[in-house]
Amino acid sequence: MVDETHGSGQGCCGDARPEEKADGFCCGADITSEMGPHIELARAFKALAHPARLMILSKLGSHQHCCGDICSSLPLAQSTVSQHLKVLRECGFIEWETAGQQSHYRVNSDKVSWFLSQSAAFFAEG
Predict the structure, then answer these.
(1) Each residue of 65-104: pLDDT tens digit?
(2) Which of 16, 31, 65, 84 could join 69 in a cystine, given CB atoms 3.0 to 4.6 angstroms apart?
(3) Pairwise CA distance, residues 46 & 21, whole Å
(4) Looking at the DSSP assignment, which residues form a beta bridge with residue 92?
């Protein structure tokens, strides 16, 4: 069976079992000791590595929206949007408030600023 995420049935480091490990990556190596400073940045890139999540962030822009508003503008089921919102929340790219039975989401501009500055610094290190 071929893993659709990696296409070849192997993880990002050639691991024959591409399931995610405890550190959030599919490779078997303990990269946390060697790559410590870059772990959070790698997790942020991973959270943004799906077109649906980028579409959600684009929809939110500088406004606040409930899940229903986001769903109505995307060609995705509500449950799929909810899962993508969860990933973005866990990584800190979006914040939410609950009002009654609805959750209202907005972009966390501090996290976006952090991501942009860390990304620029990373690529400038070269």
Answers:
(1) 999 999 998 999 999 999 999 999 999 999 999 988 889 9
(2) 65
(3) 14
(4) none
26/24 Cα distance (integer angstroms): 7
Tokens (6 digits) for 45? 């890139």
- Minimal CA–CA distance to 60: which of 83, 99, 93, 90? 93
Q: pTM for the full model?
A: 0.71
> Which residue blocks in 14-108 are alpha helix, DSSP H?
31-35, 39-47, 51-60, 67-72, 78-91
User: Angle, to 10 degrees, between the axis of helix 109-125 and the axis of helix 39-47?
Assistant: 120
Q: Which letter does DSSP use for residue 19 in this model?
A: S
DSSP secondary structure code for residue 98 in this structure: E
Among candidates 22, 24, 109, which has minimal Cα distance to 12? 24
Dist. CA 47–CA 90, nearest whole Å: 9
Task: Give the span between the Cα atoms of 115 and 54, in whole angstroms.
Answer: 14
Q: What is the DSSP letter of 76?
A: S
